[in-house]
Amino acid sequence: MTIPRLLVVDDDVETRGMMTQFLRQSGFIALPCDSEATIREQLTSGRVDLILLDVMLGDENGVEICERLRREQDVPVILVSALSADHHRMAGYEVGADDYIAKPFNPDLLLARVRAVLHRAKRSSSLVYRRSVSVFRFAGWHYDAKRDEVTSPQGYQVALSRKETALLKVFLANPHIPLTREEIAAALDVTGAGHGGAGEGSGRAIDVLVGRLRGKIEADPKDPELLRTERGVGYVLAVDVAVEEST
Fold first, then answer.
1. Same domain, yes or no: 101 and 49
2. In 65, 90, 206, 230, which residue has its Cα 20 to 30 A from 194's Cα atom?
3. Has residue 165 got a pLDDT over 50?
4. Following DSSP, what letter does each residue of 121-132 receive, concatenated?
5. Among 126, 147, 171, which residue terminates a domain?
6. What is the pLDDT at residue 163?
7. Domains held by the chain: number
8. Distance separating alpha carbons of residues 247 and 156, to the nearest angstrom
């Protein structure tokens, strides 16, 4: 399962840090940014599913940034601002913002609005994805999601448990993105793999599950080349993933 990758854009260090931490604890990949330049760096370097953009961004204006971004791409944008009058909200919607949240806000409200915008974005492309059952190719390996089959570079099938398959899907959906144990546990909990969300216990369970998956797909599980340990973070699928529609 793809873990949504969000940008938290605010020039206030404390606010940016609190929002980033809260969203990470809620199961998202949240990356802090403080300017239009850092937004564009993240857009260039990897997938971005939603941008939380402060309107009063130091010398920059979040509404103007949103307008420029909207001319180039359709990544969802939620504007966040202490300016809550109707004409401020309308200015945001007129440049293409998907939602507008006034400060101060309840964190649970923020979470609900983020999930709602992500859900709308997913529904807008549902006709494409409804018929698309993907095949993933990585480092010579082949995973057919329609048939739920994993094939090695040598051409033989490898049997994975339900939990191992769910874990593989999380990594395949997020190649080259370091994932914390908490993020992985949250994603597996959504898929029904039964790890029950973040926590110390689930972290140890993730380590065991990664070890089992390594034992089946790594040439040398003690010196892994595919599922690498990212020191101080967690794990990362360190190879490119090609995706195509299953026949």
1. yes
2. 230
3. yes
4. HHHHTHHHHHS-
5. 126
6. 92
7. 2
8. 19
What are residue 9's DSSP bridge partners?
A: 33, 53
The residue type at 201? G
Q: Are residues 91 and 69 in the same domain?
A: yes
Outline where DSSP puts E strands in the chain. Answer: 5-9, 29-33, 50-54, 56-57, 60-61, 77-81, 99-102, 134-138, 141-144, 149-151, 157-158, 179-180, 227-230, 234-237, 242-245
Percent of the chain scoring above 70 in pLDDT: 88
DSSP one-letter code for 235: E
The verdict on 11 and 105 lying in the same domain is yes
Say which CATH number the domain at 222 has: 1.10.10.10
pLDDT digits 0-9 by tens, 73-127:
888 999 998 887 778 888 888 888 989 998 888 899 899 999 988 887 765 543 3
Write down which residue in 100, 126, 152 finishes a domain.
Answer: 126
Q: Give pLDDT, residue 198.
A: 44
pLDDT at 211: 96
Backbone angles phi, psi at 47, to 5 degrees: -65, 140
Mean pLDDT of 238-243: 89
DSSP result, 3-16: PPEEEEE-S-HHHH
DSSP codes joined into one string, 39-76? HHHHHHHS---EEEEESEETTEEHHHHHHHHHHH----
Domain of 30, in residue numbers: 5-126
